[in-house]
Amino acid sequence: MTHFGGLVRARREALRRGDRSYSLRQVAARVGIEPAYLSKIERGDVAPPSEATTCRLARELGEDPDVLLALAGKVSSDLKEIIRKRPRLFAELIRQLKEAPDDAILRVVREVRDGDW
Amino acid sequence: MTHFGGLVRARREALRRGDRSYSLRQVAARVGIEPAYLSKIERGDVAPPSEATTCRLARELGEDPDVLLALAGKVSSDLKEIIRKRPRLFAELIRQLKEAPDDAILRVVREVRDGDW
DNA sequence: TGTCATGTGTCATATATACTATACATATGT
DNA sequence: ACATATGTATAGTATATATGACACATGACA
């Protein structure tokens, strides 16, 4: 399992090959954090940043925020909000799907998307 | 919307009508926290307790932990864990179901339960 | 009427979270 | 060779989170 910082560094260096502006310092500046902090994040020297910072970072790097948040050990607060509003229902559904294979879940997603209620 | 402490107090006092051992002090002792702390929790004088404490409290009061956690503004960490393992899939599913009526979600739950994969 | 239990007010604190600021050594481009 | 940019080491800090300890007033009960 790749750690958070590893992915960030890999993505940043990949982008940098085509664009000089993806140096640690410049990315840090655009994301709104100190370079020293980003450096530590990329090397796993500190815990992954807050949800807000993680999302700005994902955006900057063209990564999926949910994936980056997951690597940070977090779940997007908008998802949490949805669950919190109907805890029993969502808790049961999610636990039900714990062992389900990807394609089974995808089937459900599509079904729900196309379903008319 | 009832607040966390309100529900806890209501539940505790309800139980207490049939069982003297549901005093604030005794419940606190069984749950493993200080009475003063439980008092403040019930009156909303402090933020709801940690996930672990909330779950022990739910257990003691015969409440659904997911519901109590939701009132505490949290989502059970085992649910988060499930989502974190397949963030894209679950994120899409949950957002898809945001506006779905309860019975539509229930239908999905049943379908998944009975589904064979 | 004294003892014990009840709920609560006040103060204190440990730990985690989420960073900033400064300074420095090395590398790069001109 | 020199100015500038790069990544990093070290130290510090603000805020939130999650409680504990102790004292006190009131009420029940025997």
Label the structural class of chain A.
Answer: mainly alpha
Rough outline of chain A: elongated
Number of helices of chain A: 8
Quaternary form: homodimer
How much of the polypeptide of chain A forms β-strand, as a percent range? under 5%
CATH class of the largest domain in chain A: Mainly Alpha
Number of domains of chain A: 2
Give the mean pLDDT of chain A.
96
Largest interface: A-B, 42 and 42 residues
Radius of gyration of chain A: 18 Å
Distance between the amino and carboxyl termini of chain A: 40 Å
Describe the structure.
- The structure is a homodimer.
- Chain A has helices spanning about 5-20, 25-30, 35-40, 50-60, 65-70, 75-85, 85-95, 100-115.
- Chain A is an all-alpha fold and about 120 residues long.
- Chain A is built from eight helices and no strands.
- Chain A starts with a helix and ends with a helix.
- In chain A, helix 2 crosses helix 3, helix 4 (about 50-60) crosses helix 5 and helix 6 (about 75-85) crosses helix 7 (about 85-95).
- The model of chain A has no long low-confidence stretch (mean pLDDT about 95).
- The first copy, chain A, folds into two domains: about 5-75, Orthogonal Bundle (434 Repressor (Amino-terminal Domain)), CATH 1.10.260.40; about 85-115, no CATH class.
- The interface of A and B includes residues 64, 76, 91, 104 and 115 of A.
- The structure holds a DNA duplex (30 and 30 nucleotides).
